[in-house]
């Protein structure tokens, strides 16, 4: 029989936390973590939600099962956290809707759900019978999966996608009015983007390209120029995958030029315009064109003066997002002055977790290239604190850690991080 000490401690070690680091991450004492592991105390609901994220679990129910294997006490906070299993409403032909997709590790769940996403897209024009909720209810789920994407909760995102995609397919067939069809097209576009959030990051590049095409089609059907711009922003992933950076740059400039004809004093228009130039700056940096990078960053900064930091049509944009992209450009251009300047700043907790972790992942790679090895692994620790699921799967992290293992073979923090991320010495 597994005791609370064994179950909780085993999970903590699997995701790479010592008692001390977990306590520091949650803002509690090491003794408190010890009492949880001995079954002498139960975390308060706000801490439970943070523990679910830190331990990369699916729900508070799963956390309570670890803490009390023989006494499950599901709290209302579980439902508030917005996580549920797959399989309740899929309605796909040949799909056993009563079979939950529950794989032990949250990242493994992503790989387990990918075949269901493919199957759903294959039958998108022929969805099975099943209940279809109101657009208001569906919209809430679309917002939730996009929040999962932005906060790098990939396991929860994967769990929700198949059912939501099939319900959107059914709703599209039932809608009779043009306004409803446009609303559904917008919801489809945002859901396809959420699905691409795991397809691209987990290496399913053919599926990613397919989802991006579907997003672009849906954005056009929604008759929403800002959503079309967001789709062009995401489309850059396809060119990153193929290595066709010159086409990526042209596509971004074309999309930004079309938006420049609109009212840039409108916050949402300015955010879309600035996002495209922000992305184009990174593309130019990767090509090795510092002048073009500076020009694009200048345009993005001008746009950012008109908007507060926020999420616009699914894309984070604002002054802080630009600073993160400035670091990315400096890293691409191997600009030590730009890197050193970026290292003096840290993103605030108001930014989405995935974007914060991007900053630290980029900074880790840059510090490693500059020979600042201790700063490199400290940055990876900070990226892990911000978004563990994103950091663990990121190839840049694995590459940096593989090199650090060779350079610092006796460093226990490097060894711990490498074991957690599955990195091996080069």
Automatic annotation (TrEMBL):
It holds the Pfam family HTH_31. Coiled coil: none annotated. Residues 8-63 form the HTH cro/C1-type domain. It comes from the Bacteria. PROSITE patterns: HTH_CROC1. Signal peptide: none annotated. GO terms for molecular function: DNA binding. This is HTH cro/C1-type domain-containing protein. It comes from Lentzea aerocolonigenes.
């Amino acid at each position: 029989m597994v005791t609370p000490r064994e179950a909780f401690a085993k999970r903590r070690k699997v995701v790479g936390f010592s008692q001390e680091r977990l306590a520091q991450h949650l803002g509690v004492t090491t003794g408190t973590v010890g009492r949880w592991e001995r079954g002498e105390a139960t975390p308060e609901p706000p801490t439970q939600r943070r523990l679910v994220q830190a331990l990369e679990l699916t729900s508070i129910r799963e956390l309570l099962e670890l803490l009390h294997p023989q006494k499950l006490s599901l709290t209302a906070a579980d439902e508030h956290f917005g996580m549920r299993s797959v399989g309740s409403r899929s309605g796909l032909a040949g799909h056993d809707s009563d079979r939950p997709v529950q794989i032990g590790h949250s990242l493994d769940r992503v790989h387990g759900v990918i075949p269901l996403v493919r199957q759903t897209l294959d039958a998108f024009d022929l969805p099975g019978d099943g209940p279809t909720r109101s657009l208001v209810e569906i919209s809430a789920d679309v917002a939730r999966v996009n929040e999962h994407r932005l906060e790098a909760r990939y396991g929860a995102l994967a769990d929700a996608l198949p059912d939501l995609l099939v319900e959107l397919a059914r709703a599209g067939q039932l809608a009779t009015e043009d306004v409803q069809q446009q609303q559904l097209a917008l919801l489809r576009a945002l859901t396809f983007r959420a699905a691409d959030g795991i397809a691209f990051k987990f290496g399913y590049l053919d599926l990613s390209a397919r989802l991006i095409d579907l997003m672009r089609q849906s954005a056009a059907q929604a008759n929403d120029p800002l959503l079309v711009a967001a789709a062009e922003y995401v489309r850059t992933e396809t060119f990153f995958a193929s290595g066709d950076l010159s086409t990526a740059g042209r596509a971004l400039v074309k999309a930004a030029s079309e938006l420049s004809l609109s009212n840039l004093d409108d916050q949402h228009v300015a955010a879309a315009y600035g996002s495209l130039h922000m992305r184009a700056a990174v593309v130019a940096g990767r090509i090795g064109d510092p002048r073009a990078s500076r020009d694009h960053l200048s345009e993005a900064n001008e746009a950012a003066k008109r908007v507060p930091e926020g999420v616009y049509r699914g894309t984070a944009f604002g002054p802080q997002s630009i600073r993160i992209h400035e670091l990315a450009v400096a890293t691409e251009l191997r600009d030590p002055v730009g890197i050193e300047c970026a290292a003096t700043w840290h993103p605030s907790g108001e930014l989405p977790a995935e974007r914060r972790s991007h900053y630290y992942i980029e900074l880790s790679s840059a510090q490693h290239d500059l020979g600042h090895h201790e700063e490199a692994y400290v940055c990876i620790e900070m990226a892990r604190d911000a978004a563990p699921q994103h950091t663990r799967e990121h190839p840049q992290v694995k590459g940096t850690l593989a090199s650090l293992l060779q350079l610092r073979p006796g460093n226990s923090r490097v060894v711990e991080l490498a074991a957690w991320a599955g990195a091996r010495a080069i």
